[in-house]
Request: fold
Amino acid sequence: MAEMGSKGGRIGGKRRAANMSPLARREAASVAARARWSGKKPEVDPAEAKREAALRKIAVILEDQMNSLGLSEKEKNAKTAELVAFVSDAVSAKLAPPARRAKRPRTEAVPA
Reply:
């Protein structure tokens, strides 16, 4: 996973700027300045931030385990897809509303 990120991940600001035209650099700087001085900070949900941090930790542990097993990239991707499917199913089952029981028809007592 680290190799995949280094192949096409984010590039440094200086390298990005070197590939931009002067007009594009100016527009990007203008957008950044407006965002910086607008006074509005993006809202961060504490629960979402905690969830993201936990997922990052899990990803690091998973990658370490797969590296220690000596798996190929193809095998790592297959194992990761398997885990994602399992977690998705578990989360979906937990979030699904509980199944309702069918109501039984009331039966009146028949006089004997």
